[in-house]
Specification:
heterodimer; A: about 190 residues; mainly alpha; Rna Polymerase Sigma Factor, Chain: A; Arc Repressor Mutant, subunit A; 2 domains; 10 helices; B: about 250 residues; alpha+beta; four-stranded antiparallel beta sheet; about 25% strand
Chain lengths: ~190, ~250
């Protein structure tokens, strides 16, 4: 199928067909992309449960907004990863996975079996990443490193971090934020 | 292909039986109605401005589906007013005023850990004007509400130094030389941070003499934090983008 002057690949074709109600086309797109999306989330969250929920929400959102996909604005995969990125950022900001699209589409929660956990764990080799994060932590200034470890490692409130580091709450927030930003960069690259 | 992960197969089955909503129709009509609403709203705002009536500060709590949404609008309402209205609506929150720069006046920040069920979309140098709680929420939350800092008063919450009204307003992307000149005119002391794009390592408090006489002279301001009206940190990167890279934030007023 062609959409005129814009070249359309197989994945884009599938989404265009899915928008016309072709369930097999969406299933094929899902089959190609779902493992990659799951690995995308697992690499970033290191939690199989969160990754599974984010994957389900991403595909539910993709299906719910399938009519908005247009190959004129980008490839099918960039569209899907755009949705995945949004879901990931929402999770970071709110601390929980959204379920708006899943509720809308009637997708029920799925329990993960031990087999699921094992297979998801095999998707990403965290060893190099762990080494990179350890190195990045060592590279942080002592001020940032202490703030990150107290807030994230010891789960202290910003007030407690500020008290331990003898600084204002605002300064503690800034230190944690900047430290995490640098660690996150390592995660993205790793 | 789902690489034999049973979860993905079960999710795929559910997706196969889900029905996507139909595409929106009558787009043209919707756009025309939306345009009319915008024109009317603009007229109302323009009329209000013409009448020179100040926008009042206020707080509003209302139910939205399965949530209760607390919203602060206008300039900073007093903490006691926010707290009283919240309590009246069953929200157990403690509100304290905190001195802030112009960009954060009327913004709320958490002063205690935000429970996961509470939807607070704020950050370090930006707060939020709305917070959403589940209906019948029984928890407790501490909040700070930004009020204008008085002359020379330290900010209780650091602000984005590059935001309009702040010490380095609209200097995003400027060279250190340009920022230093503007800061000197306004009596602002700047601490210079330099971030290496390859290692992400930041050198802090680099003397300006070194900044201007080295390879860093070409670096541009990517990020700024203000601690009061006269003190700020300016972080320089090679191209004025934050490291790690983020889209450049452009303020409408700049």
């Amino acid at each position: 199928m062609s959409s005129g002057r814009f070249p359309v690949g197989e994945e884009e074709d599938r989404l265009l067909l899915a928008a016309r109600g072709d369930r097999d086309a969406f299933a094929a797109f899902y089959g190609d992309q779902s493992t990659r999306i799951l690995a995308f989330f697992y690499r970033r969250t290191a939690c199989p449960f969160v990754s599974a929920d984010l994957t389900a929400e991403t595909f539910a959102e993709a299906l719910a907004s399938i009519h908005r996909f247009s190959p004129k604005r980008g490839t099918a995969t960039s569209w899907l990863y755009g949705i995945a990125g949004n879901e990931y950022r929402q999770w970071l900001r709110r601390g929980r996975v959204a379920d708006r699209a899943r509720s809308r589409m009637g997708i029920q929660p799925i329990e993960l079996s031990s087999e699921d956990l094992e297979r998801i764990d095999a998707l990403v080799d965290f060893a190099p990443l762990q080494a990179a994060v350890t190195a990045a932590l060592a590279d942080l200034s002592p001020l940032l490193r202490d703030a990150v470890l107290l807030r994230i490692g010891n789960d202290l409130t910003y007030e407690e971090v500020a008290r331990r580091l003898d600084c204002s709450v605002g300064a503690a927030r800034v230190r944690v934020s900047r430290g995490l930003a640098r660690l996150q960069a390592v995660m993205e690259i790793g | 292909m789902t690489d034999d992960i049973p979860f993905l197969d079960r999710l795929g089955d559910q997706l196969r039986h889900a029905t996507p909503p139909p595409p929106a129709r009558h787009t043209g009509l919707v756009l025309r109605v939306a345009a009319a609403v915008v024109v009317i709203a603009f007229g109302v705002i323009a009329f209000s401005a013409w009448r020179s009536e100040p926008v009042s500060a206020g707080v509003d709590v209302r139910r939205s589906g399965a949530h209760v949404v607390l919203r602060v609008f206008g300039t900073a309402p007093p903490a006691s007013e926010i707290q009283e209205i919240a309590h009246r609506n069953g929200l157990n929150i403690d509100v304290t005023e905190v001195p802030v720069g112009p960009s954060l006046v009327g913004q709320m920040f958490p002063s205690t850990v935000v429970p996961p069920e509470v939807d607070f979309t704020g950050g370090i140098t930006h707060g939020s004007r709305t917070i959403s709680f589940p209906l019948n929420w029984k928890g407790r939350l501490g909040l700070l509400i930004g009020r204008p800092a008085r002359g020379g008063e330290a900010y209780g919450q650091p602000s984005d130094a590059l935001a309009p009204g702040e010490p380095l307003a609209c200097q995003q992307g400027s060279t250190a030389e340009a920022v230093a000149a503007a800061a000197e005119r306004q009596g602002v002391t700047v601490r210079w941070w330099l971030t290496d794009p390859d290692t992400f390592v930041t050198r802090r408090d680099v003397p300006f003499a070194e900044v201007r006489s080295s390879a860093y002279a070409g670096y541009r301001v990517a990020y700024g934090v203000a601690f009061d009206a006269h003190q700020a940190i300016a972080e320089l990167t090679p191209d004025g983008r934050e490291i790690p890279p983020k889209p450049i934030k452009k303020y409408r007023a700049c």
